[in-house]
Amino acid sequence: MKRGLFFPLLIFFAFPLWPLEQVDAAADQFSLVGMKIAELIERFGPPTAVFAARGGETWQDDVVFQYKGGDFYIFKDRVWQVKLSTALGINSGDQKQAALLVLGARAQDNGDHLLMPADGKDWPLMFRVNINSAGRVAAIFIYRPDF
To answer: 3: pLDDT confidence band, cut at 50, 70 and 90?
Structure first.
């Protein structure tokens, strides 16, 4: 009888120690934009890497927190853009036509990328799917277009 309680108790106490480094696919991915740095680290733990992303202008430089399932672009103390490997049922490597079917009529086909406005909390959001020369999904972004 003692042995029967050991494993459930072990799982119960060990579960909070489970690593949170992968972005949860079931989470509301649109709510990731606007998170404060402290919320980001509290939710996903420390990033696997931190690097600078250089923009065309110096004011476009970002600090990027990299996690297994996504990159979080930081401006001041908030996430303004997220690059994901999967979102809304679209995965990197999927065919462009499949992504268009998933996004539906709201998606704008701009050749090398698809755009779809999304409902944000207190600001506008865009959902962008970059398409490579082979006609496949190369990158998926959710971002604030007002930045």
So the answer is: low
CA distances from 97 to 61, 85, 103, 112, 137 (A): 33, 17, 10, 12, 10
Task: Measure the CA–CA gap between 139 and 100, rounded to whole angstroms.
Answer: 14
Chain segment 33-50, per-residue pLDDT in tens? 999 999 999 999 999 999
- pTM of this prediction? 0.78
**In the chain, what percentage of residues exceed pLDDT 70?**
80
What's the order of all strands across the beta sheet hosting 78-84? 49-53, 62-67, 70-75, 78-84, 137-143, 125-131, 113-118, 108-109
Cα 3 to Cα 7, 8, 15, 37, 71, distances in angstroms: 7, 10, 19, 43, 43
